Automatic annotation (TrEMBL):
The keyword Iron-sulfur does not apply. It comes from Urochloa decumbens. This is Glutamate receptor. It is a multi-pass membrane protein. The chain crosses the membrane at residues 507-525, 752-773. It is found in: Membrane. GO terms for cellular component: membrane. Disulfide bonds join 675-731. Glutamate-gated receptor that probably acts as non-selective cation channel. GO terms for biological process: monoatomic ion transmembrane transport. It holds the Pfam family Lig_chan-Glu_bd.
Amino acid sequence: MPCFFSTAAIHLLKDIKVQAIIGPETSTQARFIIDLGNRTNVPILSYSATSPYLSAKQYFVRTALNDVSQVPAIASLIQYFSWRQVVPIHEDSDFGRGIIPYLEDALLNVEAHIPYQSIIPSVPTDDQIEAELNKLMTMQTRVFVVHMSPKIAARLFMLAHDAGMLAEGYAWIVTDSVGNVFSTLDQNTISSMQGVLGVRPYVVQSDKLLNFDARFHSRYRQQNPGAPDPAKPIIFQYWAYDTAWAIAMALKKAGPLTLGFQIPSLKNSNSSNDLSMLGVSLDGARLIDAIRGTKFQGISGEFVLVDGQRQASVFEIFNVIGNSYQSAGFWTPKFGLRKNPIISSGPHAKVGLNTVIWPGGSGQPRGWEWPVAGKKLKIAVPVKPYNRFVNAGKNTATGNFDVTGYCIDIFDAVMQEMPYAVPYDYVPVTDPNMVTSMTMSYSEMCRQVSLKKYDAMVGDTTIIINRSLYVDFTLPYTESGVQMVVPMKENWSKNLWVFLKPIDPNLWVAILAVFLFTGFVIWLVERKDSRYFGGSTGKQLVNTAYFNFQALISVPKDPKVKKWLSKFALINWILLAWLLEKLYSASLTSMMTVRQLQPTVADLNQLINNGDYIGYQSGSFVRDLLKSLKVDEHKMRDYSPDQYADALKKGSWNGGVAAMFDEIPYLKVFMSTYCRNHTVVGRVYKTGGFGFVFPKGSPLVADVSRAILKVTEGDRIVSIERKWFGDEVACNSQANIIEPGSVITWSSLRGVFFITIGLWIAAGFVYATIWFFQRGQQGEQIQQAVAELAIERVHGDGDQNVIWRIGGDSHLLIRLHSHLPPLPLPPSAQEARSGSEAESAIISGDSALEEGRARTSGDSSLEERRDGGEPMTPPAGEPNGALSLLHVDSQNQEIGGLRER
């Protein structure tokens, strides 16, 4: 057939010298004809050659749609139904292969991929088609996109129907190569395609189109009387009609073509059929430009060429039902899938598709199923020394491996939560190069899964970025992260300075500051009125400090402070000291009576700086993690989990390690046994946690991940954890460590200090106000306070100070009854009295009694009076040798007194 069209095209160009050619019908035929058009400058217009391999350049014009234009519509269908794998079935030709690269790219954009391409020979036998269908039945994918010529597609669907592949669980999509000619298929083919979805260009039912259909049928009946009515024209026929109109309009636009052909010389050819004898159209350039620029409203829609080919507008999604089809929806480049062809982006737009009838009349296929051959999944399981996560121990009786462990139970529970039955077998994997039958590295096992040697891998496999490059992981089912466990050492309760530990150093500084400030305030206020806070500088400091310390223990019964401001400062200090004493006692008691432990190491940087050895689990990725954290490779040692405790006990410099790095699930198992003397400290280095491994693109990943959520969010996970790890750990190593919150800190008491400081400020403000007020009345105060006498009484075990202020309206009477030898009187006293015995001495309130002393004999007395008042007689029964001091007012009424034997 291609040879016939080639000969016919050469004949038209060489003998008839046509100015344009409409055709050919197929993409295979078009390639040679396009070359002839480019050689002769004759426009070639094809209304049915849709292969993207045909370049619409130079003198070739595609008045049909490129096959690539429907690819986004197909990808939208795949995305709409959430399918992740699609198998294209195409014929082995340029037409069949041309769409595949574009389909792959479009599917990647909607997170789907092509695991396999089913290629049917361009001239197939039934056996070849059946062999390919049998291969597809053994695969998991159940979504197929068919792109081939209508004749091959009809045979394919007939055989697929007979093989049971047009049944429940399957999804079939045909491209416009079948959709455009669907009305021409026989009823047997249509019956075998029940539930198939198709994509084809949508032609609006305009008045021009309806008029064309009526005229076409009328003319056909006139030319073929008695013949049955023809089938309704298909879109290729509409495009052919519009193509003819496009050439006619282009000729009218370009004007008469009068230049003709330039014929080559006969000397250049040895045969009349040689292609070198073809002439070159001198009007071709003008005509092709006119064709490319032609625009009009044809019966198939608007005729517009962009880059020499027709542009897509709307595609119809149809669903084969019964003897025909029904429209399931429409697709446009701008709005995507819609239920009706009237595209609207407003609130009334009907997004999505209408109800679809699938093969077998079932609900929407999930896109994949288990192979009909009943193949079980081969689940790789690592073989390693016994641990609670995965244990593939060899049964000596049977010689087989018994697979148990936490990860195994989780996987079994997940498979029970799957919405369908999943048959699988565990396959223990050992390293053939190891005599001890230990497993190969986990990364290598992941590679085996990526190569499809195993269908999945179950075990304590951590999700890390390097492995995710070639396998797919499910959601994690354990806590993620890597930390370090270190031994703990006795602390504080055996420390020399343990009594300082209950209070934070910053708080000690604050207490000292309050102590000094309180002493300063008391000294400043009381130093002028109290000899206790007077004297030399050293005496003042000692007395002030002693007084403050005395206030710490108890409130003084005989306080030496008289001023209200010093009393106020003392009260603040006593209240603060009382609160600190209670807190200090409680914290110190806790430290001395509870076993106090602290980690030997705080973080990884300390380990590196100390040059300590660091441990990790054999075969774990943690080794690479430590190397990336700048840990010297020579400072790393590998152990199995049951060796952790012994290695930590030995220590870094006795053949062991200072810290052990591992994943959090392993550390939890370790701490469940060794938590009393070990603790988990340091930063958590995030990882993905444990996950199940599947090959890239496996359809199981999404369903297994959802099942993991059901297990981990339910009660099943609790029973599995209790089975392998027991109940919650009884001892908690963190409880043995004094947390910063158990020490009294500045931040915990800053409110008390702020209140104290605030009260001091308020008191200081009041005191300053009073001081300034008194300073303004200083003269009056001096007149009122004439003299002041301080008398110190010393008796037995105590001391007592009496301070009297002698005002202008009072006087002090001193009586001395003694048999002591008389002492010489001061000159003023001698003038005041005569005789050998002084009866009395009168010192007015205005006189100064500084160093005067009175010496009398017998019961002589010394009096201080005002206005010549009579001396007061000693009280009855007063013995000789007694000193009486009476402070009396102007009416001789006793204000205060002191008598000393």
